[in-house]
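From the shared-data thread, chain only:
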Amino acid sequence: MNELRSGNIYEHYFEGKKKTIEKIIMTLIKSNKTIAVWGAGERGIAFLNVYDPRRERIHYVFDKNEKKYGTKLQTGHEIVDYHNVNADVVFVMNSIYEMDIKEALTHAGIQVDVINIDNIILGNLDEKRVLEKEQIDLKAVRNVNVAAVTILYNPNLAVYDNIITYANDVDILYIYDNSRTPNEKLIAKLKGLQHVCYIANQDNAGLSEPINTVAKKALSQGIDWLFTFDQDSKAGNCMMERMIAFAQSKMCDERVGIIAPNITQEEHIVFDCCYTYFDKVYQSGAMHNLIVLKEVGGYDEALFIDPVDYEYCVRMRLHGYSVIKINNAFLKHNIQDENVEYRFVDGKKMVINKYSSDRYYYICRNNLYLSDKYQSLDPVFARECEDSVTKIQKNVEVDIDVDKHKAAIDKAFKDYKEGTMGKVKW
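Structure, as tokens:
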């Protein structure tokens, strides 16, 4: 394991825009702003090591894990309850948690400026763009042709209510059905919508193959951007309109490869800017630039499912393209997870009754594979893949059907070592 793969991986990452981040911190200090860092894990510690090694500039460290309150990090910074102190600015260490953090602050009635460090690094932003209000100009400078694909797998009739939230906002709606036995009542209702193209695969092809198949077909039909949706996702109010408006505006340049929404059950979270740069996003609800998708090579079909979307984002960024999240566009996801329970173990969020044995298998095998593949190409992503394997092994211990799921994880390790990819064969 090289130096970057050990303790310095995140320090190296945060040093990527050191001059800019230093300027931002000094500007805030000169304005007498109280600064907090959200995140007491590896990323938070690395950030503090780089930007406040003497404990002179960062006033507080916040974390959602209440057990950490009152304790000190190895940097000497104390972790405090964000409800009990006043901060003017909060630095977010990981873009994937930005929405959760904003929701927590909103629910607590706390008004504070949130600065996403990933946004600075991935967007190559300067101090002015971070600290000043962005001038939003969504005037259309181009027309874009937009389609969507919904991937079905043994859906119930209620899925129609999800699809109808975006069906009328696209030029073509592709329905790719992975079910061996289609839901005839649902299909009949969907075919009653305008511009529907139904594809019956009659077997589970996962995510990559359906997306690649439809993307190729859509591109040949003159489509510029393709939304992809899971069957349990619902577009929030004006989500489609706002994302399409961005794609048509001068704010969306030729290097934007994906435009994504925020995933939440709430739509009242306030952001200071129109969009944020992300390292990776879920594919459900995301708009894919089809020219870019073709150039990058589409989704990796060797992975089948998890985490094909994250891998595509990383590969796309390595090709020089960016991932954008529209901050006031909201997607409601996993809205049919009524029986799923959540439990925090050592500060980590575990899920119960959500993953099948197949999902445990793919999450484990594919993250092992991607950790190797991106070890030198993107060390941060490689580390996150390692962490995903560790987390899924812990998650199985609190889930139901433990023995069955553990057997799936064992097979994942075996197949990974033997180089067996694609759809699992039990």
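The longest helix spans residues 379-398.
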